[in-house]
Amino acid sequence: MKKLAVLGGGESGVGAAVLAIKQGYEVFLSDQGKLQEKYKNVLLNNKIKWEEGKHSEELILAAQILVKSPGIPDHAPLVVKAKSEGIQVISEIEFASWFTSAKLIGITGSNGKTTVTNMIFHILKNAGLDVSVGGNIGQSFALQVAVNPSKNYVLELSSFQLDGIAKFKPHIAIITSITPDHLDRYEMDFDKYIASKMRIAMNQDENDYLIYNADEESVLKALEKHPVKSQLIPMSIKKIEGENGLYLEDEKMIIKIKNNILDMNVSDLNVKGNHNAKNAMASNAVARLLKIRKETIRESMETFQGVEHRLEKVVKLNSISYINDSKATNINATYYALDSVKQSTIWIVGGVDKGNNYAELMELVNEKVKAIICLGVDNQKIIQAFNNVIDDIYETTSMEEAVVMASKLAEVNETVLLSPACASFDLFENYEDRGRQFKEAIMKL
């Protein structure tokens, strides 16, 4: 019997363990931290051997395959040792793909991938397809393949998940954007991060499709450096010639695939902004490739509600707007947020810096931000970046304190924007916890 070890007992690790046991592997799961009760119960119910609070090397290195959770870096000593001993180290995404013949749609990008994933799922569900959503969001891909398989999967894929693939091949791949993010994980080398994102298309062939953001120099250069075999569908806010292209023209989204055109008014979108028009174009293109009716696509776009914690309008209190953009964990995402806000803004920012260059925000901050509230353990980089352009910069250590301060600083018709540009792990469990705390603090005002 083949032995498989799993490092990390979160959503993806436990999902991989369940799939492995169902496929006849001898499975051992190990987590250096403490497992959540819900995951312990899944492991116990499936009679899977596990440990917490340590890694028993002899048990882990006895496996032929090691499924590594995305949060564990490749340079972790145990991972390096496993590879040196000839153990195949893969991600849960790779492992799950071995046991399904479903149509796979993979979405990656520094920003926009969650929105696009949800948009595509919304359209396909409305069209009556047997479809599930997974990857970086929702229930793990592996668990779904194990217990509730679908004919179509829409998968949000992070660079960390793509680092662990070998044969994984989406029929349709989407690269929404590649801007500096997670550089702390890639030795502060943007090229290494780009190469990681491009892995989404590395196994595609001539029958597959790659939709990509043609407005970003980094993506165009990446395609030159990492050529792909799939059919290319560029996406831009400017007109694209050729038989395939997604672009904006006269307030219309044009979806052109093999010279077959679907157009749609940008004003019909329920979510606003140029970046969301691009998200919609990518989603609509997937729907057209899957032969979904134009009417279904239109109806779906008109009813799509957006994603929680991404430019989420929370409430208007005393003529002050509160916007939750907790999902903005990098500079580019915060750029979109500041760009989309029209009023004078109190900006709540900070957390775990992943190699941010705040100079990219300088023009927008100068133009729109009245005061900055730092919410993080170490705020020096933010303060140094903006103390020459913003007089009012404050430091806080709790969401409640930040929201109360923001509400006092904000005046009629101004906006309080939580758009941290950083990871959340210094003060919060994750970006969802940060966003929920923001909304709860507002409701206490």
UniProtKB/TrEMBL annotation:
Q: Enumerate the spans annotated as Mur ligase central domain.
A: 107-287
Lineage, top-rank taxon, reads: Bacteria
The keyword Coiled coil is annotated on this UniProt entry: no
What Gene Ontology molecular-function terms does this entry list?
A: ATP binding; UDP-N-acetylmuramoylalanine-D-glutamate ligase activity
Q: Which UniProt keywords apply?
A: ATP-binding, Cell cycle, Cell division, Cell shape, Cell wall biogenesis/degradation, Cytoplasm, Ligase, Nucleotide-binding, Peptidoglycan synthesis
Cited function: Cell wall formation. Catalyzes the addition of glutamate to the nucleotide precursor UDP-N-acetylmuramoyl-L-alanine (UMA).
**What protein does this entry describe?**
UDP-N-acetylmuramoylalanine--D-glutamate ligase
Source species of the chain: Psychroflexus maritimus
Q: Which gene encodes it?
A: murD
